[in-house]
Structures are given as structure tokens and as C-alpha cells.
């Protein structure tokens, strides 16, 4: 299967690889997926007092599309408010990276990672987690 | 050195130019139908087929009359399993095979089950070999066929064929082997090994695609299979259809070359394979899959823990290899062969198969080692699992959300 240029670009030059201090109350961490399934994403956000994401980092165990999806997600998250970040839809990632149907689960995982990171941040700061009732495409 | 480097010789091999040369006249000037008995065009084609039959037979220690040409090993496997089941159904309805067989064998067995047959799928030991005691315990008076592959396509382990065939015969069953990966790579002798039926393919031994053969024993015992294709009664009535003369000539030539060069090739390739393997297992948390003593000379299957195989292959884009990970399939299930060795799913996802071949050079192997090492290290930098491992976190203690 051929990968799109954008997937190859993110895979070859992944943006924002790294680790944020997960004990900080400003940092939210989302760890999704499972090793048995061949995909694990860890996505972290750092949020300022105005609820704006100032930094985002990821590490991913998975195929090229999974790595590209999480790399793209960190790029999109930086500078966004928490509210806008919650609106990122997996199909936006599918479209941007031109993922084929068998790789849609990679984008789903990236969306899950974003929501998990945001909820981790909310819980740390005394807020209730946001339940997502969205049915994935 | 040409990039990308081809290290997927278990999937298919490039055709040897000498094979192509032997085939060419049979497309144009010697185009006759080998079944045309009334004119020289037919005779010339038949001569080509007869010679090829001898070349194939010689490589596996058979008589040329025991070779049935087919469209490839998938057809040979199907013909052997379904054909034996139909032919011997009055004698019994039980077939024994293993869980690590090629899909052509497994799916033919599933078909037999649909027809009312009983099939036992033997597990394998951690090293990929069949446990002889488990095999013997599975034999019943109803068992008509034991089908165990010679060399495994994913991990390269060689089954104890002589011992397995002896057990089959002790209980009055026939022994069949899918020897696609072994024939031409290591010595295979149908008499010494006690083989009654054997499937082989041309394109795994530097011959053309679309042609293979089934060896069917004629003496001690005389084995028969029910044809799965009805027609002109070619190939002693076991496989109808106009013979693929150029393909068959190519298969013959490929077998002859393997017979001549196998011994030195096996030595050369095992040296290169060992070099590759020892250079790569220097990497932390890398493991060789399958028995390392009883195996084909040209295969290395290695798991690099904490990196995912498909992602790794993408980083190694200059190398054509294969992975036990199946991230592209809808099921997301990793290799059933690796799982049957007892490998956890994550290790199965992290595996790469290197298949060396006749045209693999030492320079290419050295390059492959460098590319693989760099890629594994690069992906581990990106891997949250590697980071956790390095921090001493037990990954099994984490509650993963399976998706």
C-alpha cells in the first residue's frame, strides 16, 4: 500500500516528539491504544491560564499512519483553546493525511488521545471529564 | 548496489536469467500443445515437458512419472488434500495438519471439514516444531492423511519430516508435505523422508510464477488423488488442462540449477543470515523467532520489542522485507504463525522477516543491518512503550484499552 506524501512527511519528520512533565497540573496526558493491537499513542498538552494549549508532545508505537496522525494532532493542538481542541474530528485527520479506509482507526486513536489528554487535564484541575458520545465514522 | 534491496525471497524470488533463456523458445518457435500427438509441434513441446519432469523428479529423488504439473503450490496443496480425502473416504475421514501451515493447506482442510471430514490442527512447540508425541496421540484408525509443511515460510523452521512420516505410516495414513520453502534450498528426498505427496512451486526457486508440481508416490504405496479439475485427463488423469509448457520448462530448469548449486548456496546464505542475525540481535530487546538449529539457511525472523513492524518497514523503505504485523488487514491480527509459537501479540506485531536469496550479496546484508539498526533506534525514540520500558514500568501492569 502506498502512503500519501503527507503521511511520509510526518513520519519522516515527526513534529513535537517528546515528553512533558506529567505531574504538572498544567499538563494533560492521554495514553490510548494497546500493544496487542499494534498501536499505542501518548499525547500530552500543556495548557495556560486562559485554557489555551501552549505546547503538545507525542510518542507513538504503531504504523506510519498512526505516527503521522499523532504528529499532525500535536501540530493542530498548539495555540488552540481547549474548547476548539475538543472539536477536532478524526475525519479531519483522515482528510488531511489522505488515509485509506484500513487506516481510519489511526485517526480515531488520535482523536481519542486528544480527548483523553484534555480530560486528564480537566480532572487534574478539578473539572469533570467530558463524555464523548460521538460515534466514529 | 541497487536500492531498494530485495530481502523478501520467501514471498517470491526473481527469475534466474538462465531459466528465462530456457523458457523463451517455448513461447514462440516451440509453441506446440504437448498433448498434440500427430505432428512435430506437439512432439517438441512434449519433449520439453518430459525433460522438465525428469529435472523436477531428480531434485526430490522421485521418478518422473510421479510428477504432476499444476499452476502452483496452492493448487498442489488443494489437489493433494481434497484429492486424498475424496479418494480415500471409504478408508477414513480424518486428516491431521498443523496450525502453522500455509493458508493453502489450512483452507483446503477447512473445505474438507465442510464436506464432512474431521481435521486435527496440531499445535507447535515454542520453537515452531511439531511435538511428535502430540502427533502420535492424535492418530486414529480413521486418519487417512498427515500434512505437515517441510520448512516454514515465516520463521524457516524445518519439521522432523522423517519422524513425522514414520508415525503417519505406522498408523496406515499417507504423509503429505508442503515443501515450497524447502525444495531447492535444502536436500529433500521423497524416499529417504517417507513422503507420499509433496507440493512445490517454481517462483520460490528462481523460476516463473504460475507453475508448480505435486509429487504423487507410485510405489509403496501407490497413491492416487481424485482430480479437482475435469477435462482432458492430462497428467495421468489427476490434473486436466493444457500444459503450461514454457512454465514447466522453466520449473525444470530452476530445479536443475538448484540441484547443482544448492549445497554451496546454502552455506553462503547461512553465513550471510548468521551475520545479519548476530548484528541485529546486538540491539537491546531483540529476539530471533523459531528454532535456530533446525531451519532453512536463508530466513531470519526477528522481533524488535517496542517498535511496530509495519512502522518499522516504512522506516526501512530501502529494504523490501515482510512483517508479522498486519496493521493493514481489517482484523488487526498479527501473524498466526508467530502467535502459535506463544509469542504475545505485541512481539508478533514487532517482527520482521528477512528472506535472503541467490542474488543477495554481502554488501546488501551489511547495508540492511545499518538501515535496520537505525530504523529501530529511530522508532524507539518515538515509542512510548520504549520510554516506559526504560523507566522500568511493567507494561503488563497497565490497563490498556483494546480497540
Oligomerization status of the protein chains: heterodimer
Mean pLDDT of chain B, nearest integer? 95
Using DSSP, what is the number of strands of chain A? 3
Q: Report the biggest beta sheet of chain A as strand number plus sense, adding barrel if it closes.
A: 3 strands, antiparallel
Biggest sheet details of chain B: 7 strands, mixed
CATH topology of chain A: Sufe protein. Chain: A
* Spatial strand order of the main sheet of chain B: 2-8-7-6-5-3-4
Structural class of chain B: alpha/beta
- Approximate strand percentage of chain A: 15-25%
Shape of chain A: globular
Q: How much of the residues of chain B is beta strand, in percent?
A: 5-15%
CATH class of chain A: Alpha Beta
Rounded Rg of chain A:
14 Å
User: Share of helix among residues of chain B?
Assistant: 25-40%
**How many individual helices of chain B?**
12
The unreliable regions of chain B are none
Keywords (chain A): Iron, Iron-sulfur, Metal-binding
Function (chain A): A scaffold on which IscS assembles Fe-S clusters. It is likely that Fe-S cluster coordination is flexible as the role of this complex is to build and then hand off Fe-S clusters.
Family (chain A): Belongs to the NifU family.
GO molecular function (chain A): iron ion binding; iron-sulfur cluster binding
Amino acid at each position: 500500500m502506498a502512503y500519501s506524501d503527507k503521511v511520509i512527511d510526518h513520519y519522516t519528520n515527526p513534529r513535537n516528539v517528546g515528553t512533558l512533565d506529567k505531574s504538572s497540573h498544567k499538563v494533560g496526558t492521554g495514553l490510548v491504544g494497546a500493544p496487542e493491537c499494534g498501536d499505542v499513542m501518548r499525547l500530552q498538552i500543556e495548557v495556560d491560564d486562559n485554557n489555551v494549549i501552549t505546547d503538545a508532545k507525542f510518542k507513538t508505537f504503531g504504523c506510519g499512519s498512526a505516527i503521522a496522525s499523532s504528529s499532525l494532532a500535536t501540530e493542530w493542538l498548539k495555540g488552540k483553546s481547549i474548547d476548539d481542541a475538543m472539536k477536532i474530528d478524526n475525519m479531519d485527520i483522515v482528510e488531511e493525511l489522505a488515509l485509506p479506509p484500513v487506516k481510519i482507526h489511526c485517526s480515531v486513536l488520535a482523536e481519542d488521545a486528544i480527548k483523553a489528554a484534555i480530560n486528564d487535564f480537566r480532572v487534574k484541575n478539578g473539572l469533570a471529564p467530558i463524555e464523548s458520545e460521538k460515534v466514529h465514522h | 548496489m541497487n536500492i531498494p534491496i530485495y530481502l523478501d525471497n520467501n514471498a517470491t524470488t526473481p527469475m534466474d536469467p538462465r531459466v528465462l533463456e530456457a523458457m523463451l523458445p517455448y513461447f514462440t518457435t516451440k509453441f506446440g500443445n504437448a498433448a498434440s500427438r500427430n505432428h512435430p509441434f506437439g512432439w517438441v513441446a512434449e519433449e520439453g515437458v518430459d525433460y522438465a519432469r525428469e529435472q523436477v523428479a531428480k531434485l526430490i529423488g522421485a521418478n518422473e512419472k510421479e510428477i504432476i504439473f499444476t499452476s502452483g503450490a496452492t493448487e498442489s496443496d488443494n489437489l493433494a488434500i481434497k484429492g486424498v480425502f475424496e479418494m480415500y473416504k471409504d478408508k477414513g475421514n480424518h486428516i491431521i495438519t498443523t496450525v502453522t501451515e500455509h493458508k493453502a493447506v489450512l483452507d483446503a482442510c477447512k473445505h474438507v471439514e465442510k464436506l464432512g471430514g474431521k481435521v486435527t490442527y496440531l499445535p507447535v512447540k515454542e520453537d515452531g516444531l511439531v511435538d511428535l508425541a502430540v502427533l502420535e496421540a492424535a492418530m486414529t484408525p480413521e486418519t487417512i492423511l498427515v500434512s505437515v509443511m517441510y520448512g516454514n515460510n515465516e520463521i524457516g523452521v524445518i519439521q522432523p519430516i522423517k519422524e513425522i512420516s514414520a508415525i503417519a505410516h505406522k498408523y496406515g495414513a499417507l504423509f503429505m508435505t508442503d515443501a515450497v520453502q524447502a525444495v531447492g534450498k535444502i536436500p529433500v528426498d521423497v524416499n529417504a523422508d517417507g513422503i507420499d505427496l509433496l507440493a512445490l512451486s517454481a517462483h520460490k526457486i528462481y523460476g516463473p510464477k504460475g507453475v508448480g508440481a505435486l509429487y504423487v508416490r507410485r510405489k509403496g504405496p501407490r497413491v492416487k488423488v481424485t482430480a479437482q479439475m475435469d477435462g482432458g485427463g492430462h497428467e495421468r488423469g489427476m490434473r486436466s488442462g493444457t500444459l503450461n509448457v514454457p512454465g514447466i520448462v522453466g520449473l525444470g530448469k530452476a530445479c536443475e540449477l538448484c540441484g547443482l548449486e544448492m549445497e554451496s548456496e546454502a552455506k553462503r546464505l547461512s553465513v550471510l543470515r548468521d551475520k545479519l542475525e548476530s548484528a541485529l540481535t546486538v540491539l537491546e530487546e531483540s529476539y530471533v523467532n523459531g528454532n535456530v538449529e533446525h531451519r532453512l539457511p536463508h530466513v531470519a525472523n526477528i522481533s524488535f520489542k517496542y517498535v511496530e513492524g509495519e512502522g518499522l518497514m516504512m522506516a526501512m523503505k530501502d529494504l523490501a522485507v515482510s512483517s508479522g504485523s498486519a496493521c493493514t488487514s481489517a482484523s488487526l491480527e498479527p501473524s498466526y504463525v508467530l502467535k502459535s509459537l506463544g509469542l504475545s501479540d505485541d512481539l508478533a506485531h514487532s517482527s520482521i522477516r528477512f528472506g535472503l536469496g541467490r542474488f543477495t550479496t554481502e554488501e546488501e546484508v551489511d547495508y540492511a543491518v545499518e538501515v535496520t539498526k537505525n530504523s529501530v533506534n529511530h522508532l524507539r525514540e518515538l515509542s512510548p512503550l520504549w520510554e516506559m520500558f526504560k523507566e522500568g514500568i511493567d507494561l503488563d501492569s497497565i490497563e490498556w484499552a483494546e480497540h
